[in-house]
Amino acid sequence: MRKPIIAGNWKMNNDLFETEKLMNTLLPLVAGATAEVVFCPTYIGLQKAVEMAKDSNVGIGAQNMHFEKSGAFTGEISGEMLKAIGVQYVLIGHSERREYFNETDETVNKKAVKALALGITPIVCCGETLAEREAGKAEAKVVGQMEAGLKGIADITKVVIAYEPIWAIGTGKTASKEEANEACGWVRQTIAKMFGEDAAQKVRIQYGGSVNPENIKDLMAMDNIDGALVGGASLKPTFSEIAKF
Fold first, then answer.
1. Which of 36, 96, 128, 164 is the catalytic position?
2. Is-catalytic flag, 66?
3. Catalytic residue among 66, 94, 103, 132
4. Confidence (pTM)
5. Taking the domains of the chain in order of start, what are their residue ranges?
6. CATH no. of 5-243
7. 53-105 pLDDT tens trace
8. How far apart are CA 102 and CA 93, in angstroms?
């Protein structure tokens, strides 16, 4: 039985004080959730969030990391730096990172491998554009991202995958539960081919894209969906309704 994992991606929202306020609001609301719960604040709020989440049921994740330990990489944060302050998860290859900051499947792979080496759980993202879906290329896009992004990983069961159709992120549009389940199935099938069926059945796959309290139960009832990566809705008290689906 795969333990559900619900993660909130706060994106570029909340300064340090707003992060503290939101943590104070959400921590008691999500207490007792049977799912694994993760908050991913901005870099500036990470250390505070880690401190506040101590002794709670919430894990803290970063929204990105570099694959090198240190060096002339202005504006970047290393996995070692995240590890040092107690960060437990990291989002890798989110579509916004790919689109706006030139993330590639190669850098996604390097970051995932490095995160695992540090004992940080990578949440590796994948997903297609609306044009790719309408052209019948959605499966090829998702499979290609997984094949390139996960190669060489020693223990795939320590990786979380987040399938997010790009056309559903922040748009209010949501893939139907059947579409979401089918795409998460493509991910699981690809993992089975790469790492074996037993490993594939242990990997947790999230759905992301305008997840809200109204659709979470239907999504979580699908056999290939093990959780959700939540954007805007994770900034509201009602995120607890998603975490406690």
1. 164
2. no
3. 94
4. 0.96
5. 5-243
6. 3.20.20.70
7. 999 999 999 999 999 999 999 999 999 999 999 999 999 999 999 999 999 99
8. 10
